[in-house]
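Narrative summary of target 7.
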Amino acid sequence: MWNQFFLLEEYTGSDYQYVGKLHSDQDKGDGSLKYILSGDGAGTLFIIDEKTGDIHATRRIDREEKAFYTLRAQAINRRTLRPVEPESEFVIKIHDINDNEPTFPEEIYTASVPEMSVVGTSVVQVTATDADDPSYGNSARIIYSILQGQPYFSVEPETGIIRTALPNMNRENREQYQVVIQAKDMGGQMGGLSGTTTVNITLTDVNDNPPRFPQSTIHLRVPESSPVGTAIGSVKATDADTGKNAEVEYRIIDGDGTDMFDIVTQKDTQEGIITVRKPLDYETRRLYTLKVEAENTHVDPRFYYLGPFKDTTIVKISVEDVDEPPIFSRSSYLFEVHEDIELGTIIGTVMARDPDSASSLIRFSLDRHTDLDRIFNIHSGNGSIYTSKPLDREISQWHNLSVIAAEINNPKDTTRVPVYVRILDVNDNAPQFAVFYDTFVCENARAGQLIQTISAVDKDDPLGGQKFFFSLAAVNPNFTVQDNEDNTARILTRRNGFSRHEISTYLLPVVISDNDYPIQSSTGTLTIRVCACDSRGNMQSCNAEALLLPAGLSTGALVAILLCIIILLVIVVLFAALKRQRKKEPLILSKEDIRDNIVSYNDEGGGEEDTQAFDIGTLRNPAAIEDKKIRRDIIPETLFVSRRTPSAPDNTDVRDFINQRLKEHDTDPSAPPYDSLATYAYEGNDSIAESLSSLESGTTEGDQNYDYLREWGPRFNKLAEMYGGGESDKDTS
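Modeled conformation, tokenized:
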């Protein structure tokens, strides 16, 4: 019986490695039994002698690939092939040898530890692994040691924990360290295999250094004209630490300029920016001294013994003189003046001075953009503002002026100040009716009847408020005024009954006065119409002419009749205008060039026997021709005196007469500057192309030659074919 065999790994012999022997009690040694092997690697990695049962390994075996193999063995009868015993299972275990060195999972480690750490502070732990069997011998027992990095660091042999070995390691002296760790198996004994790794260790910063100013005294300069908030310079304390451990807060702790200057910490640059807190004046003070402190904002209590973590420096600030503009005695001025003051009255005075030691003279002026109407003026020497035009509160109650002050020696350097002028009210306006009143009284009104309630307004604004009094300018027998004592009054009738046929309109003068000083009053006239009213007092008609109209003709009928009359008048006027336009219609209707128009007369003459159509005697008797008349189809730009043409003899030929008239028109300066149509009722025979008319074709057809028409261009091709073809046909016939 068996259950386990052992085999040494990495066998280097030339023969197969012997594993063990299988044997059955049924084996008589006569070779009748046959041993069979099956399972992991049977037949390939492991073989068995079927007669003797010896098992061998055919090649080297690596335990790290597989630590054990499970196989099954059986003995059968060689002749019948039947098993003589049940199948049995056994295990072949591979014995380990030290053939693997320790390895680290990473070639390079990165670690950090705070500077100034105490001895023994843990930095990082490194761990190596060994593929050998830890349960068999010391092949997998690893011991750690440090090959590089002493005396700053050490490593625990069993755990691989790296610790600090020196006290007070300062980052400012050295920040980076490289440590080499070795891992060796076989418990670190001779013959053991080993592996190494590198650990890069960085010392992290702690606040172990206070800030320090590089200079004990710092000098700065600032012009006296620098506005509040202006940065005049910076101070900076250096700190060997980094990050938040180097953050510094600056403040002014002492000096004679603590109320004149501020200091602000610039976080990104760790500088202290000194700014102006109050306006400076060279003439008042020229030098300020400040004591500035810089202190770390994050202090580690463990390093209090290295403190204090702050430093101080002296900052001296010199104020430089600048030619400053004038300074007014106030930031603004308010003057009040009554609107009835005389022209040239001084309403107030502005004052300014030169803050410089030279104390130059000041010249004052008004910004005319703030006084476009030039109501005010200013004395350039003493700053007195006076009126140059009358004031009227009702037009403008406030005037906002701007006064400019400039040094005479340096007029470009100016200062402005606002001046507010308030115009005080004077009772210089009389009250008037608040609105226009359309007042009427019914014909059937009774005495004491209210016909209108009136009120008044006043442009003035007295301190005690408005108070008006109403009365009649004279005693009126028809109407009276009753003051309501609330700035209104009632108009009442004084008698019964009114007749619009007798008097259609009454004028009632009403006197309105105020109660301010001096008292102002005005007279307003109410126009009161007499109207017909119904029983309820509602107005129906106020026209006196309505009484004369027949009772049977309504207002609508009158309106219709009036419209018909207007329409007839319009038709008559249009007809007359069209008729006049037709009479004055010119011969040439188109405004375009007359050469492009054809004038059609739509009539036909009566031939030679028609002596009424045209009198040719007129051509032969120029004396009968009337004086020249201005043409109707053009408007001459310049009119010239018509020249009288000398009379031609009675026997003058028509041709000579026409040529004479043509020459006269060519030299006439009053002729139009463009071509116009002129009818001479005569045709000459001097044309180069001769006549194209067919009137004389019967006598001259045989002598005509139309070949030249082909030379006139494509527009005359059709005409040339017509006449040229006709001749050819005639010749051939």
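The first strand starts at residue 4 and ends at 8.
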